[in-house]
Q: What sequence folds into this?
């Protein structure tokens, strides 16, 4: 078993991150007793302008404070742009991509144009892309363009709806079915033509995470259930790129007293703030039900 924790250094880790990292860590530790398990840390810093060195240092400090260790050097996504470019070229070579010049505003304007009987759908990345640039071809790629995956073409390439339905992934969450199946219609309606390469950073979360989980030989992905809707996208990308599919565990989210999920800007619940207040790691573990 090889687990990973993959934070982005865009803020201080909060106790929800602690829960995620420790869940992955404990699974790897339990496995280590029998067959051996590893726990890796990966710094997901593709969004360079939003990432800060001080947050990265705090990630290392907080995780060490919680008692976690990992092999060094850690993988840092900002060092991996060539691997992401290779993967994008593979998908382009399959004829599944198109360049997109739409801004967020273009997308929201296109979606707010009256379309009788059509509900605006939101996917893991926000509003489902209306397909404005879909007729464009990659030969026409401009400097400021993003690259999108045509989900319809991707599904056709993978053998159509019946093949997609037979393609799923294994989920180990406590209350969830064991085998999650994919559905072509909902991939199109609920995910749509996702961005593979953002115009500003040349890659995207979905592409990078799939490429890196494979490069690091991750067998088990442990992350919050807010990420579950993105996993179908990851499964499709793994199939297109010929990469293995890990087992997924989407765990419960840690919420505040009002039931709201924690966010990075929630400094009051950062691990740092509890450390600074003199709490022990065990007390923090107790707060998230892991003591
Ligand atoms: N970098 C992502 C985050 O911090 C990780 C998501 C994942 O584990 O796949 O939310």
A:
């Amino acid at each position: 078993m090889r687990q990973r924790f993959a934070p982005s250094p865009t803020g201080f880790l909060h106790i929800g991150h602690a829960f995620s990292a420790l869940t992955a860590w404990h699974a790897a530790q339990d496995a280590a007793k029998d067959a051996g398990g590893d726990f890796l840390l990966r710094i997901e810093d593709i969004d360079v302008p939003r990432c800060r060195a001080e947050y990265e240092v705090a990630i290392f400090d907080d995780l060490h404070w919680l008692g976690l260790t990992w092999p060094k050097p850690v993988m840092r996504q900002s060092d991996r742009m060539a691997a992401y470019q290779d993967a994008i070229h593979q998908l382009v070579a399959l004829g599944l991509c198109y360049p997109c010049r739409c801004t967020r505003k273009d997308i929201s304007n296109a979606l707010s144009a009256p379309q009788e009987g059509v509900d605006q759908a939101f996917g893991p990345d926000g509003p489902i892309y209306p397909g404005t640039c879909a007729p464009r071809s990659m030969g026409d790629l401009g400097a400021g363009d993003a690259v999108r995956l045509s989900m319809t073409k991707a599904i056709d390439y993978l053998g159509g709806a019946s093949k997609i339905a037979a393609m799923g992934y294994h989920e180990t969450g406590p209350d969830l079915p064991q085998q999650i199946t994919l559905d072509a219609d909902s991939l199109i309606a609920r995910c749509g033509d996702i961005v593979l390469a953002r115009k500003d950073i040349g890659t995207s979360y979905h592409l990078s995470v799939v490429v890196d989980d494979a490069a690091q030989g991750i067998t088990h992905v442990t992350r919050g259930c807010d990420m579950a809707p993105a996993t179908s996208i990851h499964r499709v990308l793994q199939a297109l790129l010929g990469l293995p599919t890990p087992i997924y565990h989407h765990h419960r989210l840690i919420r505040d007293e009002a039931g709201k999920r924690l966010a990075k800007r929630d400094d009051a619940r950062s691990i740092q703030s509890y450390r600074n207040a003199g709490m022990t790691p065990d007390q923090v573990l107790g707060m998230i039900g892991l003591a």
In short: The radius of gyration is 20 Å. The first helix runs from residue 15 to 34.
